């Protein structure tokens, strides 16, 4: 994986093997813990707090081998922003700059960072993992927020910007997805398209990224919030009518909601826009074969 390649590069340029690199002053060695109800196969009278650890194969260490506390996370973020982790002061800015396609168009992602909210004001960069943890750094606001939970499927990336908004209320309005989410919870998800139309009239520069909407809808789908997810997939098709993937995703949830006629329409549109959409063709064949 790319993370394993990065570990090899760290071994090469830091003159430390990867595990010793993690034990450097900026990346502390930590021991996680948890409560246990059983010990050596026998139930305990009451839960006891134990030091614990997980073993990962060596090749997964760069992506899944580090355990840390929020305090150590904060120290790492401070070291990162103070350029203590790089030899060149320009490295961090390069990492946080959008990747460009061959035609020169800027993408919505950066080098090695899973979340890149590259907006005009209150830019945020970070990463999420396991559907249970997330962090965002706001380099222009001298702010960072870290959310660590032990609940898989809690998707803290859906509310982390609201936490940041407690420190700077402008952040919520600056992030279109958070702003949209908060308002749709009030007016109803079935009003999503009308709300966006009205918002664009009042603020022509207001826009939301296609992949952010799609990912959010899939997170709601994972929590079985079919109606809400369906409205966001529908909104994505409205905002990005030339995206084959938007139609494909909308068709997927329509099929889950047993709306086969509309699902077929969406999959056909997706294939029309992208004749190489083999998954869409497969789904259509399965529907027609029923």
TrEMBL record:
<dbReference type="InterPro" id="IPR001466">
    <property type="entry name" value="Beta-lactam-related"/>
</dbReference>
<dbReference type="InterPro" id="IPR011990">
    <property type="entry name" value="TPR-like_helical_dom_sf"/>
</dbReference>
<keyword id="KW-0802">TPR repeat</keyword>
<dbReference type="Pfam" id="PF00144">
    <property type="entry name" value="Beta-lactamase"/>
</dbReference>
<feature type="repeat" description="TPR">
    <location>
        <begin position="244"/>
        <end position="277"/>
    </location>
</feature>
<feature type="domain" description="Beta-lactamase-related">
    <location>
        <begin position="52"/>
        <end position="158"/>
    </location>
</feature>
<dbReference type="InterPro" id="IPR012338">
    <property type="entry name" value="Beta-lactam/transpept-like"/>
</dbReference>
<protein>
    <submittedName>
        <fullName>Beta-lactamase</fullName>
    </submittedName>
</protein>
<dbReference type="InterPro" id="IPR019734">
    <property type="entry name" value="TPR_rpt"/>
</dbReference>
């Amino acid at each position: 994986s790319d993370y394993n390649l990065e570990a090899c590069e760290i071994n090469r340029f830091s003159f430390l093997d990867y595990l010793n690199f993690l034990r450097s002053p900026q990346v502390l060695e930590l021991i996680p813990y948890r409560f246990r109800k059983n010990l050596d196969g026998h139930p305990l009278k009451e839960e006891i707090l134990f030091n614990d650890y997980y073993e990962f194969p060596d090749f997964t260490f760069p992506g899944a081998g580090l355990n840390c506390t929020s305090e150590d996370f904060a120290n790492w973020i401070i070291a990162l922003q103070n350029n203590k982790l790089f030899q060149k002061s320009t490295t961090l800015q390069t990492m946080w700059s959008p990747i460009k396609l061959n035609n020169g168009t800027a993408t919505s992602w950066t080098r090695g960072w899973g979340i890149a909210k590259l907006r005009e004001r209150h830019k945020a960069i970070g990463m999420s993992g396991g559907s249970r943890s997330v962090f965002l750094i706001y380099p222009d606001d001298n702010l960072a927020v870290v959310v660590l939970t032990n609940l898989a499927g809690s998707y803290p990336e859906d509310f982390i910007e609201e936490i940041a908004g407690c420190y700077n209320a402008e952040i919520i309005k600056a992030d279109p997805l958070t702003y949209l989410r908060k308002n749709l919870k009030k007016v109803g998800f079935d009003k999503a398209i009308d709300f966006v139309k009205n918002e664009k009239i009042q603020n022509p520069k207001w826009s939301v990224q296609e992949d952010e909407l799609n990912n959010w809808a899939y997170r709601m789908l994972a929590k079985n919030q079919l109606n809400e997810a369906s409205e966001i997939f529908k909104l994505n098709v409205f905002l990005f009518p030339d995206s084959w993937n938007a139609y494909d995703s909308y068709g997927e949830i329509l099929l889950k909601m047993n709306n086969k006629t509309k699902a077929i329409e969406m999959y056909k549109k997706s294939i029309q826009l992208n004749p190489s959409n083999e998954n869409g063709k497969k789904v259509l064949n399965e529907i027609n074969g029923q």
